[in-house]
Amino acid sequence: xxxxxxxxxxxxxxxxxxxxxxxxxxxxxxxxxxxxxxxxxxxxxxxxxxxxxxxxxxxxxxxxxxxxxxxxxxxxxxxxxxxxxxxxxxxxxxxxxxxxxxxxxxxxxxxxxxxxxxxxxxxxxxxxxxxxxxxxxxxxxxxxxxxxxxxxxxxxxxxxxxxxxxxxxxxxxxxxxxxxxxxxxxxxxxxxxxxxxxxxxxxxxxxxxxxxxxxxxxxxxxxxxxxxxxxxxxxxxxxxxxxxxxxxxxxxxxxxxxxxxxxxxxxxxxxxxxxxxxxx
Length: 280
Hints:
Structural class: alpha/beta
Radius of gyration: 24 Å
């Protein structure tokens, strides 16, 4: 347990499955309180009374040590397990039941209360689409296999280290989209327009740009004190790339301060793409 927890607020994310849902929602809510230091604990696969009691004891121990009730975000499906957690010394937030009960009342049906449904394989075709899209993104990474760009939903281009690969994989895994990544190299940046490889797919292309200062910082971690990471080089490349995108009327996205999740969601919206699946 961190030594500084007495000066912080403890937060528990409790789930009977992977914890992805409760952690995502909890972190989103806590991000609104950026002056507070939160110490997070994830208690996953709490699917028996024995595990629930152990989780309760852990929460109580932290409450006693810190003299503050920990925040407890919970997505346990079984009511008897939720009851055990709600009786802890934490401030309990029943995430699922807060929303499920009003939905049940409105549509006149009871929720199935099956563990793991949010992230399980509910549709074989959607799962196959997701795996196929990931395979496509890996195959077309860094400009490889441009001959299969016909199958692309989107082609992301930009200078090195702007997050193109990570974004392609996120689009594939979370939206089932075929996303290709074409890096702009020196000869591309010195040309008169879009690289020849991309011209025939112009309607699928989106350009990434980034502030030179941010790019230099990122590149310094990869190749410190090199021409590749120098601020002057980064200024030249970003200026040339932006000019290219403007000249060819390519949609431009400044990713300087955006997360991968934000970038992917913005691309889907900007290009009016239709996801084949969605994983929160």
